[in-house]
């Protein structure tokens, strides 16, 4: 199981939101590159970067900050937020991003997801962000009528191998995870699931490892210190819980 430290970018800064609310923002660093180096030094093998401005605008907005991170670290990064075209994906991949995450476009233009998978293969990951079971789009500011399970099945059929599933109701709340929800999505879709939202402590990492998810995104917990990143990585990489 891989632990993905999250770096959420807004205005070139490293921030965290509560339940995706842009009015409930905490700035943790003015230097995302330094934050990336910190997580790399703690043992991270992969970074999860979200362009919050891009998610809201519908096109990547924090390319300079993303490039600074890429230039600084030796580990791979995945990037999501505002990637709505094949050109957006190609631009990020050409910068050196290992994987790009398609979100809103998976709901609004599923044909593009299929085309992206055909063109870029496993460099394409889809993020499903849901609240009360329904997928949210455009930086979580709009809800759709599509359920997470329906979308997961559809994109898996299109060739997507990895899905990042975020429980918006728990994101940024440090309320603990609902491991069963990730298991259900994995069984429904047949895809690998990366869990996101609500991770609070090492017990959540243990629960998700027992649920056999492929990875876990950790954000607010490692910024506030309720979860030690190094300990989380050691547990994730251990042979057993």
Task: Itemize the secondary structure elements and their pairings.
Layout (H helix, E strand, L loop, with lengths): L1 E9 L2 E6 L2 E9 L2 H10 L5 E5 H6 L5 H10 L4 E4 L5 H10 L3 E4 L1 H5 L1 H11 L3 E8 L2 E4 L4 E6 H10 L4 E6 L11 H11 L2 E5 L5 H9 L4 E4 L1 H5 L4 H9 L4
Parallel strand pairs: 1-4, 1-12, 4-5, 5-6, 6-7, 7-10, 10-11, 11-12
Antiparallel strand pairs: 1-2, 2-3, 7-8, 8-9
Helix pairs in contact: 1-3, 7-8, 9-11
Overall body shape? globular
Class from secondary-structure proportions:
alpha/beta
What percent of residues are in strands? 25-35%
Strand arrangement, major sheet? 1-4-5-6-7-10-11-12
Number of strands: 12
Q: Could you please describe the fold and organization of this structure?
A:
This protein has 241 residues and is α/β, with parallel strands linked by helices. The chain is built from 11 helices and 12 strands. It has helices at residues 32-41, 52-57, 63-72, 86-95, 104-108, 110-120, 148-157, 179-189, 202-210, 220-224, 229-237; strands at residues 2-10, 13-18, 21-29, 47-51, 77-80, 99-102, 124-131, 134-137, 142-147, 162-167, 192-196, 215-218. The chain has an 8-stranded parallel beta barrel, surrounded by 8 helices. The longest helix is centred in the middle third of the chain and has 11 residues, at 110-120.
Characteristic key phrases:
12 strands, 241 residues, 8-stranded parallel barrel, alpha/beta, 40% helix
Structure at a glance:
The protein has 241 residues and is an alpha/beta fold. It is built from eleven helices and twelve strands.
């Amino acid at each position: 199981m891989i632990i993905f430290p999250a770096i959420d970018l807004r205005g070139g800064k490293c921030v965290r939101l509560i339940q995706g609310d842009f009015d409930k923002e905490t700035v943790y660093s003015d230097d995302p590159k330094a934050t990336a180096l910190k997580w790399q030094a703690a043992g991270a093998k992969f970074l999860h970067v979200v362009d919050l401005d891009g998610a809201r605008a519908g096109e990547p907005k924090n390319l300079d900050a993303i490039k600074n991170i890429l230039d600084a670290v030796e580990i791979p990064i995945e990037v999501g937020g505002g990637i709505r075209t094949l050109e957006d994906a190609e631009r990020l991949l050409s910068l050196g991003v290992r994987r790009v995450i398609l979100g809103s476009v998976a709901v609004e233009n599923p044909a593009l997801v299929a085309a992206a998978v055909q063109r870029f293969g496993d460099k394409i990951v889809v993020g499903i962000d849901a609240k009360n079971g329904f997928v949210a789009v455009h930086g979580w500011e709009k809800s759709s009528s599509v359920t997470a399970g329906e979308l997961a099945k559809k994109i898996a059929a299109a060739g997507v191998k990895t899905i990042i599933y975020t429980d918006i109701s728990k994101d940024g709340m440090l309320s603990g995870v609902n491991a069963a929800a990730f298991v259900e999505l994995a069984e429904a879709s047949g895809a690998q699931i990366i869990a996101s939202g609500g991770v609070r402590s090492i017990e959540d990492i243990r629960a998700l490892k027992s649920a056999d998810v492929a990875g876990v995104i950790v954000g607010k917990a490692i910024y506030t210190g309720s979860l030690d990143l190094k300990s989380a990585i050691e547990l994730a990489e251990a042979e057993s819980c």
